[in-house]
Amino acid sequence: MMLKLLHYFPFIGLVVAENGLQAWLRYAPLPQGHNARLPSSIIALNSSTNSPVNTAGQELQKGIQGIFGNRLSISSIGKAPSSAVIGTVAQFQEAFGSSPVHNQLEEDGFWLSVNGSTVQILGQNERGALYGAFEYLSMLAQGNFSNVEYATNPAAPVRWINSWDNMDGSITRGFGGNSIFFADGHVVSNLTRAAEYARLLSSIRVNAVVVNDVNANFTTINPENIQGVGRIADVFRPYGVQLGLSLDFASPMELGNLSTYDPLDPGVIAFWGDITQQIYARIPDFAGYLVKADSEGTPGPLVYNRTLADGANLFANVIKPFGGIVMYRAFVYNQLPDEGDWKADRANAAVDFFHPLDGQFDDNVIIQIKYGPIDFQVREPASPLFANLLETNTAIELQVAQEYLGQQCHLVYLPPLWRTILDFDLRVQNQSSFVRDVITGERFKRPLGGSAAVVNVGLNDTWLGSHLAMSNLYAYGRLAWDWTSDSEMILQDWTRLTFGLDKTVIDTITQMSMASWPAYENYSGNLGEQTLNDILYTHFGPNPQTLDNTVWGQWTRADHASIGMDRTVSNGTGFSGQYPPEVAEMFEDIETTPDNLLLWFHHVNYTQMLKSGKTVIQHFYDAHYEGAETANNFVAMWQSLKGKIDDERFEDVLFRQVFQAGHAIVWRDSILNFYHNISGIPDGAGRVGHHPFRIEAESMELSGYQRYVVSPFEAASNAIAIVTLTNSTTGTATTVLNFTSGVYDLAVNYFDLYGGNSSYQVLLNQKMIGQWVGNIVDIGKLGHTPSIYLDGHSATRITFPQVPIKKGDTLKIVGQANGVEPAPLDYVVLLPAGVID
Ligand SMILES: *[C@@H]1O[C@H](CO)[C@@H](O)[C@H](O)[C@H]1NC(C)=O
Ligand SMILES: *[C@@H]1O[C@H](CO)[C@@H](O)[C@H](O)[C@H]1NC(C)=O
Ligand SMILES: *[C@@H]1O[C@H](CO)[C@@H](O)[C@H](O)[C@H]1NC(C)=O
Ligand SMILES: *[C@@H]1O[C@H](CO)[C@@H](O)[C@H](O)[C@H]1NC(C)=O
Ligand SMILES: *[C@@H]1O[C@H](CO)[C@@H](O)[C@H](O)[C@H]1NC(C)=O
Ligand SMILES: *[C@@H]1O[C@H](CO)[C@@H](O)[C@H](O)[C@H]1NC(C)=O
Ligand SMILES: *[C@@H]1O[C@H](CO)[C@@H](O)[C@H](O)[C@H]1NC(C)=O
Ligand SMILES: *[C@@H]1O[C@H](CO)[C@@H](O)[C@H](O)[C@H]1NC(C)=O
Ligand SMILES: *[C@@H]1O[C@H](CO)[C@@H](O)[C@H](O)[C@H]1NC(C)=O
Ligand SMILES: *[C@@H]1O[C@H](CO)[C@@H](O)[C@H](O)[C@H]1NC(C)=O
Ligand SMILES: *[C@@H]1O[C@H](CO)[C@@H](O)[C@H](O)[C@H]1NC(C)=O
Ligand SMILES: *[C@@H]1O[C@H](CO)[C@@H](O)[C@H](O)[C@H]1NC(C)=O
Prior knowledge:
Layout: H1 2-8, E1 41-44, H2 52-68, E2 73-75, E3 83-88, H3 89-96, E4 110-115, E5 118-123, H4 126-141, E6 148-152, E7 158-165, E8 182-183, E9 186-187, H5 192-203, E10 208-212, H6 223-236, E11 242-247, H7 251-254, H8 266-282, E12 288-291, H9 308-319, E13 325-329, H10 349-354, E14 365-370, E15 393-399, H11 415-422, H12 435-439, E16 449-454, H13 470-481, H14 487-499, H15 503-523, E17 562-563, H16 581-588, H17 598-601, E18 604-605, H18 616-639, H19 647-679, E19 694-696, E20 701-703, E21 705-709, E22 720-724, E23 730-736, E24 742-751, E25 759-764, E26 767-773, E27 795-805, E28 810-816, E29 825-831
Parallel strand pairs: 1-2, 1-3, 3-5, 7-10, 7-16, 10-11, 11-12, 12-13, 13-14, 14-15, 15-16
Antiparallel strand pairs: 4-5, 4-6, 8-9, 17-18, 19-29, 20-23, 21-22, 23-28, 24-27, 24-29, 25-26, 25-28
The protein binds 2-acetamido-2-deoxy-beta-D-glucopyranose (12 copies).
């Protein structure tokens, strides 16, 4: 073992634990046989501690030492041959009299020249120089020793992250531990992780982080906390990352003791002017404000009958003298719609509110628009608001946080989803109008624009709770720089940097990741009917019933015969008419609406024929089976990497893939049980409701266990589970196996509730073949929002592979309740090789 380690890691003293903390900046030694011509020293043209150029010099030193074992000296002057020189164009000119770069660079851009051991990295500003240093290091870490010479510039000036961190240290939709910024109402004293985060972000060219939740707490801007966030800005600064803050619109009342927060009130204006001054006094490079107002019950200008533009411009005015900007969210929908009204539609809200205000927002306001008209669903059409603001700056809001997409417990590589939006051509004024060109400002010649991604990094060593989920964060930065970058190539760069250069590792992770979003869409909600998560509770597991009969407007309008939202102009909500004519026409007509958005735009019978030649309902059946199968195949794919990556990360990912495989079956069955039940239409392939390898727990001989009717019914196989008689006792469920003798994978579906850690044993002819504790949600091993009920979030599977079974064997499961968890069991399944059920 030691020998093998030495072979792979020749500089053993530098090897850090592979716990994920270094993410894609590991600077791991290259395998033998990679020999680069390296610079012999580093010249960083600014040696001030807070200067990103100084940071770049140190990062180069650290990286080259990690990858090659050479420790280069750093100086701030001189002209050594075969050195790596880093600085701004201006600094280079100052030091050497002339510069090789002329007018090729825009703000934050850089120029990189590698000619053997002579390297020049010149930024338009210091931040750009640091980006260039990370680019060079990324090449070296991937064993790319090409000579290159090029300039590169960002697609847009705003490449931000929104953290939904709360002052008490929790994170809204946080699945990777508590906040690295806040605890107990204050900024934490140890900001090491915040600095490490800024380092990761600067390597992907993210230039600002809004550190607190959009549902902002006014205490964030009290005098003490302004000092506190000032300390965060201090640790961000050497990495060229700026700090921004979300605001609570009602702060003038809550913090300032005013009787109003009317945006036109002079006292209110003075209050915000004063706050802004205090912030800039502490943080001179403060990036700007993020405002969620009049949204889901938050206060805003509409309370005073002012317009949203009045609200946005209030902040724009006070921050303008300092050079700051205002990101104003378009996620406004306070009037809760009535499902009884066929024409009501929450999807219409953004355009209804904002289109009439086009041209009224100040130049330093950016309207931040979620990618789709509802809320980060597995598939949505591009928000039509991108086509309705021609005289307003816009940015797209994405989610690296997998709120509705498996909460980092399911592998879902998101760039292919994002690209469906950014590459969508809105045909404004019948001209090419890709969303990516709208948000960068290019299409409508706007001075500002870009993107913000909601990111839920936490204190967990893995940042996001999941090693593989980090590809989404990495890719966000890469795409925000260049929206035309290829999703798969970005993924491969990330994989090499994160897991090394082994081709099998790269190919396998590529294959899994690229298949992951289509698989998730297949086993959750497809044909554009939204993700079908439980939208009233955890946003994690399946619960299609929660979408209808609510005021949240995420309806599917599913009944016994038909399903889908009629968003046509001719007979429905009129949403399709919010797009420019060419696109509106396409979505208006069932014939020209793509299958994958059919139920978004049209209300149809389950027997409606798709372009694929299948009916809607048969598509559901087939897609869910396909998706669950793909997710199950990820397990063997990942297992094939054993020994090719370190055990710590291998085991961690394996645990999650096994969970996903089981939960994908929960998803598949829940959704299909539901639509099978409501439509009464059988599965043409005979799978739905027919599980020959399962033994329902309720059909076993029970002692100390009783039947329990699960709600929603579709979350349990056959709608029924078993629970112990009390929540402190033991139960047994026994059955005689009537299966052909052979070797089977024995899986048990149970429910892992928050608030208890039941223990279980599986016995075959009184001999124990396996045991487990239902504790994965209580010890936070997965990190998703837990459930205290037997439902689609708590439904979990454990598998004991390769169990030899004889016909007539007695199988017994013993469950010991714990806490509020009555050792709940759904079914046992004995899977012959190759069967997934
Ligand atoms: C060097 O960095 C410091 C700190 O960021 C900055 O104040 C100074 O202007 C920089 N010097 C030059 C010559 O750019
Ligand atoms: C690269 O460096 C060599 C000398 O080491 C020089 O002859 C050559 O012109 C350089 N190439 C470029 C493109 O600058
Ligand atoms: C090496 O890096 C350069 C610059 O990023 C890139 O253009 C080139 O394609 C890379 N070469 C390989 C083999 O990946
Ligand atoms: C705002 O933060 C304070 C201090 O942490 C806390 O007491 C209060 O409950 C928070 N308010 C809301 C609405 O979260
Ligand atoms: C600060 O946090 C870092 C990273 O979590 C840790 O390594 C370090 O020991 C902490 N420092 C102090 C003084 O607690
Ligand atoms: C608001 O009132 C509270 C309590 O009455 C007081 O402590 C605080 O200083 C006041 N704040 C301002 C800005 O006047
Ligand atoms: C806003 O307008 C409505 C309807 O015109 C009115 O009832 C309400 O009192 C107004 N609110 C304010 C704060 O002026
Ligand atoms: C038109 O809308 C009505 C509800 O107003 C609905 O019942 C009907 O199915 C729709 N017709 C078509 C063809 O979609
Ligand atoms: C849809 O189903 C309903 C109820 O079964 C039926 O009356 C209607 O004719 C069907 N419509 C189409 C277009 O097939
Ligand atoms: C056992 O399985 C066989 C064939 O699948 C079936 O005919 C028989 O009725 C089953 N016996 C019991 C006791 O369920
Ligand atoms: C990180 O999260 C994983 C699972 O989400 C958990 O098992 C582990 O204990 C956490 N580690 C830390 C250091 O928080
Ligand atoms: C048993 O469950 C009940 C509620 O279901 C709960 O109040 C009680 O505390 C639980 N008992 C234990 C030991 O946790």
